[in-house]
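STRUCTURE REQUEST FORM
Protein name: L-arabinose ABC transporter permease AraH
Source organism: Nitratireductor rhodophyticola
Requested output: structure tokens
Priority: standard
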Amino acid sequence: MTTSIKKLILGDQGLLVIFILAFALVSLTVPNFLTERNMLGLLQSVVTVGVIACTMMFCLAARDFDLSVGSNVAFCGMVAVMASNATGSIFLGILTALAAGALVGLFNGVVIAKFRINALITTLATMQIVRGLALISSDGRAVGIDDPGFYQLALSRFLGVPTPIWVLAALFIVFGFVLNRTVFGKNTLAMGGNPEASRLAGVNVDWMRIWIFTLQGFICAVAGILLASRITSGQPNAATGLELSVISACVLGGVSLAGGRATMTGVIVGVMIMGIAENVMNLLNIQAFYQYVVRGFILLLAVLLDNMRSSAIGRR
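Status: completed
Returned output:
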């Protein structure tokens, strides 16, 4: 592989160029891909992954990751629906779900930072616990929404574009700013690059981890509320496998599994690549069984690219 090709594949701008070329190729070869209806459907389909990727980016950049996001999304969706039904207030339901998601994230952060338990084990345990809570609270069944106003969270439109897409765009902007323009973002990248050096420089690494995971949990609640509104019920088995899709999107977008490197532009491109791959498979009527195989290969490709990037900058 020549140096120029390596730069194209591994560089931040190169990833964007590859995405544009792939988008153009798919637009020319796949029927109905470039229609307005399909484009809006594509954007809506990546909302859940995109929302979670905004904060998973910080977890990965800090040398951590969160495997409980899928379970937390389902749990918070259940909480939002059940609390709304119980109180008769959509606002209280949403508030309760946001608090529940943040508490799950806070729990992860405290266990990882203060008890020094590996993030893999902690979030794997939380994934099981929170999914179990969602199943127990609903007796394993979907919970219907009593107030039709809850549907409007996903069905409403602004300037012809569904509200969840605007929420996703706003979160991309906000967290892009946080990553690039705030002390929190700079400390996250520094901590992921060298935790001990960051600690010696005065960064409270433990509290940074707690804040990152709490924020991750809060954003899971946002995604869970939007998902419950879109599927018109609280589903205890929703978002199964979401964590792998989110991590794949982030790593495809240049977020390093070794920590210390992340860009919001790259994450957006990674999210869109995942969404387009799934959208194209649906348009071509590829069976769901084969789609699992494709997702697995995308995850392997993401890790391979991450290894190549790390090797290229001497961080293996």
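Reviewer notes: The chain has a mean pLDDT of 91. The CA atoms of residues 268 and 313 lie 23 Å apart.
Form closed.
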